[in-house]
Amino acid sequence: MSRLYLVCAICSRRQAEGLLSGAAWGRLALPPGVEVDHPALKGSHLCCCPSCVQRHPGWQEELLASLGLSQHNGPPQSAAR
Q: Quick one: pLDDT band at residue 1, thresholds 50, 70, 90?
């Protein structure tokens, strides 16, 4: 079943998913082969609300680091937050 809300991976803000509201949210595609159990996961993307995108210019790198992933190293097979 599809989630009806977008959940921010940084602040946990929830917002109803829609075309206009969802377009403003940042999305980070997970590296291939990585499995993450996270409330902000939508398909294979993690979401970040517009406020956090603005407040944290390097949110993608911060989020990957908080999950124990690195863009420079090979990803582990599984990561959980």
A: very low
Give the containing element (helix H, strand E) for 66.
helix 59-66
Q: Which of 52, 56, 53, 35 is nearest to 44 (CA)?
A: 35
Cα 53–16–11 angle (5° rounding)? 35
Taking only the tens place, the pLDDT of each residue in 25-46 is 999 998 888 888 888 888 889 9
Domain count, the chain: 1
* Token pair recorded at residue 53: 């995108």
Residue 26 lies in a domain: yes
The burial of 20, by beta-carbon neighbours within 10 Å (0-12 exposed, 13-18 middle, 19 or more buried), is given as exposed
How many C-alpha atoms does 32 have within 13 Å on its Cβ side?
Answer: 0
